[in-house]
Amino acid sequence: MKITKLLYGVFSLIFILKILETMSFIDYYDPFAYHLAMPRIWYETSFMEALKENDLFILAGLFDYLYIIPMYLTGGDLFITQKVSQFLHFFFGLGLSSILLIKIFKNKIIGLLAGITLLTISKGSTFFLVAKNDGPLALLVLLCFLMIFDEKVFKKLEGPARAAFIGLLMGLIPTVKLNGLLYLVPISVYFVIKYRREIKSILICSAISILVLLPTLIKNWILIKNPLFPALLGKIPGESTSQMRLFYSKFVGSDFQIDLLMQHFSYFLLGKALFILVLPILIYKIYKKDINKNYIPVLLAASSYFIYVIINGGLPTYRFVFPGYFLICFFIFKEIEDRPIFQNKTWLVLILLIFALADSKLDKSIKAAKKMSANWNSSNKEIVNREFSYSQFWNYIEPEGKTYIASDYLTNSYFSKKGTRVNCALVDRMAEDLMTCKKPETLNKFSYALLRESGINDCYKNIEENGIALHRINGITLYDIRKINFK
Does the predicted TM-score (pTM) go above 0.85? Predict the structure, then answer.
């Protein structure tokens, strides 16, 4: 009983620290570029207009659309919306997933250890705290797997109703984040094998998952003529520009290199130090010829990452392994729970707890809480300007209705003034001619330019010679180009 209370206390403390961390200002690229920027433009205009304003916004998934709620509730307060959105992402990712693990394990001590381990994933921990969509994706993958793996999870859902709910989860996985397809494929195979004698359940699950996913595929086709955007741009370029294809090829579609194999291996198995236990557990099970369904979560995680390595092996990264981390965590503690020799051993519980906390990065959470208290008397604008240096550019912008800014690098437009739009030539068709200068007259719609490069074509030279340099930060210069007539 004492050890259970200790674990509940540790879990609650970590949970609170994570929440406090989401309440701090976190400077991270993607949210300011599209996860939060898209709902902001949606709030100012409309949903469809926001999607058409910037090709980067096509990347926003279903969960990102929820960030419009705090935007409306706060009357468009960007600072508060960021904090609330960070909390939403944490809660519907790591938060609920850790609680789910506590609930599904019969042994509460094991469940609490699993929850603490998941809550303190070390690799890419910031991904779960900023306003993104990786956390909800991992939650959906974990929940979908558990629904297939164990009929006791939501046991009131039986027969067709259970198949329909699993189909809903399968459809939502790539809708929240398109790389969820990496996990959807092996999970779908697992479902078909498990329900191979229940054709009706397979048909119901398949139909619902397709119906849920279809709107996202149609949206992408309408907007850029590639339903899987930004994947497969080499084979389905659609209406993307050469610059877009070049940019996304660095992140989607890079060829596997053998010298990166160990790096891939480390990302897959070392999301947390405790995950290294997977290897001795697997070796022991194979040695004892202990063949049971507990292998399945590791098999699903490994097969998903194997698919990733095949199609994008030139880019080792942990961001595509997050759902796998959740499955690995379940596997480890499921194995411990199923072996009576380890149950209720205080020494083992304490060792696992220390192991889990060793790389918990709680010091980062504590620093964030201290930083938040230190900023207590600062205005929102002061905090943003201090923490996010590029926001200083917006002090030099004079919006006139819709004000477009052409960029060759910077896309972080979330904190820009109302009415402003940042279109980056690397990822957006509207600003393509900044880089190509094939149709320079298309640049007349822009009032300002943010340039990192210099003199690479006539359009650049025109801006640098005839534009008014307003401000420079980290090698990027803001130009007023309203008086330039591009021809």
Answer: yes
